[in-house]
Amino acid sequence: EAQVTQNPRYLITVTGKKLTVTCSQNMNHEYMSWYRQDPGLGLRQIYYSMNVEVTDKGDVPEGYKVSRKEKRNFPLILESPSPNQTSLYFCASSSRDSSSYEQYFGPGTRLTVT
Amino acid sequence: AQSVSQHNHHVILSEAASLELGCNYSYGGTVNLFWYVQYPGQHLQLLLKYFSGDPLVKGIKGFEAEFIKSKFSFNLRKPSVQWSDTAEYFCAVRDTGRRALTFGSGTRLQVQP
Known about the structure:
The complex is a heterodimer. By secondary structure, chain A is mostly beta strands. Helix content of chain A is 0%, strand content 50%. Chain A contains no helices and eleven strands. In chain A, strands 2, 4, 5, 6, 9, 10 and 11 form a seven-stranded mixed sheet that branches. In chain A, strands 1-3-8-7 form a four-stranded antiparallel sheet, with no helix packed on it. In chain A, strand 4 and strand 5 form a beta hairpin. Chain A is globular and about 40 Å long. By secondary structure, chain B is mostly beta strands. In chain B, 0% of the residues lie in helices and 50% in strands. Chain B is built from no helices and twelve strands. In chain B, strands 2, 5, 6, 10, 11 and 12 form a six-stranded mixed sheet that branches. Chain B has a four-stranded antiparallel sheet with strand order 3-9-8-7, with no helix packed on it. The chains are: A mainly beta, B mainly beta. Chains A and B meet through strand 4 and strand 5 of A and strand 5, strand 6 and strand 10 of B.
């Protein structure tokens, strides 16, 4: 089954404690991205990757890091989480095929930073 | 920068009522347009998309949307809603120079039985 998976689905942590949210897709997609969803703000892009070893900032990259060492994986790293990073995070992927830029979303990770 | 406006933040309808959700975007160039739906506790799913051609596009579950270029709009419609349509709906736009989607703030639809 074609899918995007994220782990963990729920995470409660404390300020300053480094964490990583994993994202994996099995569709051989070149493009992957991370969004955060906040009430009243919709989804905002954090980082994206056009292919292996190619990453770039989205609209709200501050406080986040990413890496793309393999095509299927795109982890999101919070080196020193702060309460304003409490949010719902979605990973998404899409193919390079220009006839369809549909993005496939993962199930989401709800992060709470206290 | 591209922006997307969804004017209705929370809509409450009775079953069988007609639905229209507004979406306007700011970019004047060539765009791809999308509507996504997020059912409670679930991830986003694509409802429909417009790339080119017929400006009236039909999606899943009886939804349709009309692209009006002169108005920079891509409104979502459904003639008769069901309780199972209760969800949050997001309009998204991609200008063809970028891969990223710009999302609207979402509209929460509540359908009462």
